[in-house]
Structure formats: C-alpha cells, structure tokens
Design goal:
It contains 11 helices and 10 strands. With 320 residues, it is an alpha+beta fold. The protein has 3 domains: 110 residues, Double Stranded RNA Binding Domain, CATH 3.30.160; 106 residues, no CATH class; 61 residues, no CATH class. The strands form 2 sheets. It has an 8-stranded antiparallel beta sheet. Strands 5-6 form a two-stranded antiparallel sheet. Strand 2 and strand 3 form a beta hairpin. The longest helix is centred in the C-terminal third of the chain and has 21 residues.
Length: 320
Amino acid sequence: MFTKQFGLEIEFTGISREKAAETVAHYLGGTATITGDYYDTQKITTPDGRIWKLMYDGSINCQKKDGRRTVSAGSNYSVELVSPILSYRKDIDMIQALARRLRKAGGFANKSCGIHIHLDGASHTPRSIRNFVNIIYAHNDLLYKALQIAPERMRYCKKMDAYLVERMNQAKPKTLRQIESIWYENYSGSRNGHYHQSRYHFLNLHSFFHGNHTVELRGFNSTLHAGKIRAYIVLALALNHQALTQKSASYRKVQEENEKFAMRVWLNRIGFIGDEFKSCREHLYQHLDGNAAWRYGSRENVRSHVSTRNTQNGGSQNEQ
C-alpha cells in the first residue's frame, strides 16, 4: 500500500505566500526563488534537490486574522502548497511537521480550500482504472459524509457521474484509449486544457489522460491539522491499492444502515488495521452516524435483531 508515490496540494489562507514560503524554506532548510509567473510561484529547493511550490489559486477566499476576528485579505493571502513527489514511509513525518509549522505561523483553511492528492499512475491498467471508478461510485455517499465536503467546494469535486459509471460497466473497455473516450463522452471541445471541466470530480482522470499521468483525488476539505492530513493520505493510498490489486470491483451502492460500522469494515478490508491507523480511522468515523463496533448499533440492538430474526424464522417454519 505504501510503495506507491504521490503528490500533495494543500490550499490555505491566513498568511501571505511570502510568509508561507519563508516558513517552508526555514523548516526544510531550502532556498526560495520567485518565478514571477502568473501564479506568483515561489519555489523552495531543498538540500535533496526536491522543489516545493507556493502558488496563487483564484478559487481561494482570502482571509486573515485581525485579533479574534477573521477578515478579508488581499490576493497574496491565497496559498496553494504543491509538493514534489513523495513517499509515505520516508516523508509522512515531515509533511505533518510542515503542516504544524504553517498553522503556527498563522495559516488556516476555510470552506473554499481543498486538498488534492495525486497518485502515481504508472502501474494502472484498464482493469484498475475501472475498479477505481467503481470503488469511488459505490462509496460516494459514505465518503462525502465522512469527509464533510463543504457545499462551497462541490463544484470543484462532484460525485462520480452515474451515466459515466453505467457506460463504463456496460462497455467494459479493455484499453485505456477506450476508457479515455468514455471519460470525455459528455464534453465537447479540446481535451488538452489543464482546466478541462471533467477534472472537477472526486476522482479526476483528466490528469491521468492529459496531465502528469496521475490519478487525482480531490474530495478533501483542506486543513493544516497534521492528523487529518495523514488520514487523507492513507485513505488515498489505500483506495489506490484496492483499485490496483482487486480482480474486479462492484459499483453497487454499499448498505449504510450503520454508517460507522460500514466504514470500519471497509477500512479494515483496505488496510487500516492495527494501532498505527487508529487515529486515521477515528478521523474518518467522526462525522458518521451509528456504532463502529456493532452492525446494529449496540450489543442490546444486536440481541434484539437476532431475537426478531429467530422469531421470524420460526414463524416461517411453522407456517410451512
């Protein structure tokens, strides 16, 4: 699960890009350079040669703190942190520490900000891409509630399109070219632009076909909370691993009579096992209803359910 590389984009405000670049450079021991491009990009080159970027993003509602109040701020308070290629075991502690330092410097995320995780697409095949589409679609509702995706961000990370999923599973494409054709089927015009409308979904394959050959997950509200960032990264890597390793994946909606239990079972199945991921699981359960330990809510409810089921079964046998 943790052998695949990824990239990270974290949007926030609260401090200027200059202050953010200064904070990143100081922590990573890097040197900052200003490119002077449209995005006012500030590059931080670290001693290992990797480059981090602090960029302007027009979708961010720029704010800052004025005492205890949050007030509007200028466009230089729009900050998107773009990482170099990362690996989990090597870089997760550094990512979390960097988030804490940006938060301490005054950075914060509001409802206009998101986190995007780019997963290395080199190992993906037509089968795994179809799996990924089906996995996200089957868990659409559970994911959106667990992640509390803000309504303000829905235009930038829409749910998987039912038509797309139906077409994908009816056609059963065998090549990436066929999958690409289905992905763009409802869009006119050129597919080559970076900001193509098909990209604004929880699962973005535009970056896979006409970008840097990554599978992008866009369904995360931004935060500078180190634990939540880690939970999102682990979830993205686990979803990627599931898509790559399963022979097939159903697109049927999962049963959610107990949301927390459904999430626990799924997370355990895709790798969130043991104390190492306890806090990750808790972050992903936080906004769900139900009981993670018992499918029917509690020990008492389980007994009641079993008793009712036994009565019904006995009655059916008597009638027969």
